[in-house]
Amino acid sequence: MRVDKFLKLSRLIKRRTVAKEVASQGRIELNGRPAKASTELEVGDELRIRFGHTLLTIRIDRVTEQVRKGDASSLYTVVNEEKVEQSQAD
Known about the structure:
Structural class: alpha+beta
Strand order of the largest sheet: 2-1-3-4-5
Order of helices and strands: HHEEEEEH
InterPro entries: RqcP, S4_RNA-bd, S4_RNA-bd_sf
Domain RNA-binding S4: 1-68
Number of helices: 3
Protein name: RQC P-site tRNA stabilizing factor
Subunit structure: Associates with stalled 50S ribosomal subunits. Binds to RqcH, 23S rRNA and the P-site tRNA. Does not require RqcH for association with 50S subunits.
CATH topology: Structural Genomics Hypothetical 15.5 Kd Protein In mrcA-pckA Intergenic Region, Chain A
Strand content: 25-35%
Family: Belongs to the RqcP family.
């Protein structure tokens, strides 16, 4: 599944177009490497996303084409969530 689609389905980012923008800004890494919106991910992969001053690391637990809103968080496990300083965030 594409990174942008997963982020939308998991409700980590509300719109797929926003997920594409975040990826194009270099704020997403997949298994330690910069990821494009079209990068394919699989179960077990580790995704790092920078939201402003927060760096969120998640592990992909499930990949599915459809998910109910209440079950969206079952697609991933939060591995780490940390605050980063402005100099690291830019």
